[in-house]
Amino acid sequence: MTTTAASLPAGDEAPLRDVYLSSTRQRFKNEVNRLTRDGGMAALLQGREEADDLAFVLAWVYLYHWLAHNVPAAWREPVVARFRSGGRAFLMDLLLEPDVESFLRGYVAHWQPLPSGGVRPPTQQQQLQRLLAARGGDPAVLVADLLEIWRGLDLFSRSYKVAYSEIGRAERDRYGEMLAEADRARLALVDALPDPGFAGERPRLAKAGLIPAMGCPQTCRHCMFIWRPPKPKNADPERLYRLVDALADNVLFTGGDLTRQLDSFHAAIRSMPNITSFAILLNGDFADDPGVTDAVLGAMAEAIDSRPADWARAKVLLQISFDEFHQEVIVDKRGRLKERIPVAKIANIVERVPQYSEQIQLALLHKQTALNFSMDVFNKGVFARLAAELGRRGHRVQVLSAAPAARPKRNPMAPDQLAPVVKDASFILTRHPDTPILFTSSTIDGYGRAAEMDAWETVKEKELLAEVLAGRTPPGVSFDIDLMFWFNGWATLFNAVHICLGDIYADGEEIVLARQRKDPLSHALHRFDTRLLDYYRELRPDLEQKIAAATGPHHLFHTMTEDADVRLHLTRRLIDDGHGVAAGH
Predict the structure, then answer these.
(1) Which residue among 1, 78, 144, 337 is least enclosed by CB atoms within 10 Å?
(2) Phi, psi of 481 (to 5 degrees)
(3) Whether 518 contacts 196, CB under 8 Å
(4) Predicted confidence band at 86 (pLDDT cuts at 50, 70, 90)?
């Protein structure tokens, strides 16, 4: 049992500055260690002539570009100032040079004079002297060669803005392929298969999803969705409410941040008599002050209370995104510090939700980082900031329980060992001991903006991926193929919104549900069928690259099926090989 108290001062901008500098310095330090101590640059240079002598200087060229890529110019000096002690002070000065050529000229000049009195030169100086000697002692030639080698690595060749734009275009193209020619050909193959059906009454699904719209005003660095499909023009949400109510006991409203779709959420609560849990995912940005927060929570509670007495007893599961990325302190376009979504807004929700405990269960959804490998996840980082904000309001946060994930994972800050990682927890405000708040933490898959994150920033599932690829998928691990129903009519899979089983409005419910039962691709994905790897190789040459880049099995099987022509090929091969009749799901 852990108690976290307030620690940050109120009423000025010092907390934001402290958080920004602390987190950015830690990011910088982690990159220094990855590239130098842990051999990151040496690995990039493997097989190249002079690799051992090049690794250190090019690691710092990388770090020069990392700073330019991640830290606005006005903040670079405060970030590196902490690292000026000892023998690397000159490097911190060089990192502030106006261009990388000036950095390299300064680096070479620093190491040119040899120590006197027979003192053995430092390793880095010996490396520089060998590189220089190989070029006839000409510093200009060495600088030119270093620049050419660096350019050949093709790192930091595009800004985040350009990278995100390219990722967004690819995502838009994927959505554009949904239910186009290749997808329709795939679904025709599925429609021609016999239907396994089900004995007796239709079994109820564990859950179903509803997507009123896909969108979020935030630009978090880890988000998998960038391009947002247009809002549906001819939506029939009541039809979808009736369908989902007949299929499942639990429904999840999702699609980025649904603050602008809360009216649809309230309408669903008032329209679906069989549902017992109405989950909704919000980013918490609505909670500007206690009054606004009460209005939003109160409307949810009122919708629950309005349900007739003979309907299933229901509750809202209010899921709020809360982690080091949603609450990241960033520098805005005007050079000022701000939180993406202020911790104070999350505190407003945590503080007010006990008043609605009969109708609403609050859960904070968190993304795993190195902090999750100990109770530091509650004593440092964003949770500590939340506890501090609540402490300023006179509350104390008490962590009641913390449980690890089913499998140990590799700590990105200590990658040589597997360790338990905190996944689920509960906590209370001590004024409200009977109102526990849930905290659940998950990994970040490397698609969308997350593909541009630094390697050490997220917890990966590489060991699980290896087990799956070896055909040893652990019990309880699966690709989620439950259905998500979009207000525009699409029916897609939970773990792959690019795999569409049809248009509810155009194709009809029964055809779409029959496809779910029959689709060999969906069911092969569900069990991580490794035959899909062989079938993919028949059509595309890049499987090994995808495996190397994958953060886990879900990421790999997602990326393998993003292309409509690949989905068609995989489905056809499964049918040809006799895997066309799946057990009812």
Answers:
(1) 1
(2) -110, 15
(3) yes
(4) confident
Please identify which residue in the block is written with the tokens 């969308």. Answer: 448
- What is the length of the chain? 585
Torsions phi, psi for 380 (to 5 deg): -135, 175
Name the more confident of 14 and 573. Answer: 573
- Domain of residue 294: give its range: 206-459
User: What is the rounded distance in angstroms from the CA atom of residue 525 to the CA atom of residue 404?
Assistant: 26
- Among residues 459, 489, 516, the one where a domain terminates is 459
Is the domain of 212 the same as that of 149?
Answer: no
Q: What is the pLDDT of residues 105-163, one digit of tens each?
A: 999 999 999 887 778 899 999 999 999 999 999 999 999 999 999 999 999 999 999 99
Which amino acid appears at position 413 of this protein?
M
Spatial separation of the C-alpha atoms in residues 38 and 578, rounded to whole Å: 48
Closest CA to 341 of 164, 449, 253, 219: 219
Residues 248-303: pLDDT tens digits?
A: 999 999 988 999 999 999 999 999 999 999 999 999 999 999 999 999 999 999 99
| Cross-strand pairs, 485 | 210, 491
Residues 6+ apart with CB under 8 A from 433: none
Give the Cα separation of 253 and 281 in Å (integer). 7
Q: Assign 3-state DSSP to the chain and report helix, strand, coil percentages, each to 5.
A: 50, 15, 40
Is pLDDT above 50 for 2? no
pTM above 0.90, yes or no: yes
Whether residue 344 has pLDDT greater than 70? yes
Are residues 455 and 326 both part of a single domain? yes
Pick the closest to residue 492 from 167, 179, 169 (CA basis).
179
Q: For residues 293 and 409, state if they share a domain.
A: yes
Same domain, 98 and 240: no
Q: How far is CA 286 from CA 81, 167, 296, 441, 482, in A?
A: 37, 28, 8, 22, 29
Contact in structure between 410 and 418 (CB atoms under 8 Å)? yes
Give me the sign of the Cα torsion angle 295, 297, 302, 303: positive
> How do residues 507-532 score in pLDDT, each as one tens digit?
999 999 999 999 999 999 999 999 99
Q: What single DSSP character describes residue 316?
A: E
Beta-bridge mates of residue 493: 483, 496
pLDDT of residue 5 exceeding 80, the answer is: no
Q: Is 261 left (phi over 0), alpha (psi -120 to 50) or beta?
A: alpha
- Residues 288 and 361: their CA atoms lie apart, in Å, by 20
Q: Strands 250-253, 208-211: parallel, antiparallel or unpaired by DSSP?
A: parallel
Nearest by Cα to 178 from 486, 526, 550: 486
Residues 212, 149 share a domain:
no
Same domain, 146 and 236: no
State percent of the chain over pLDDT 70: 96
Asked whether 23 and 339 are in contact (CB, 8 A), the reply is no
Can you give the C-alpha Rg of the chain in angstroms?
A: 27
Q: Which amino acid type is present at position 133?
A: A
Question: Looking at the 3D structure of the chain, how many domains does it have?
Answer: 2
Contact predicate 107/94, CB 8 Å:
yes
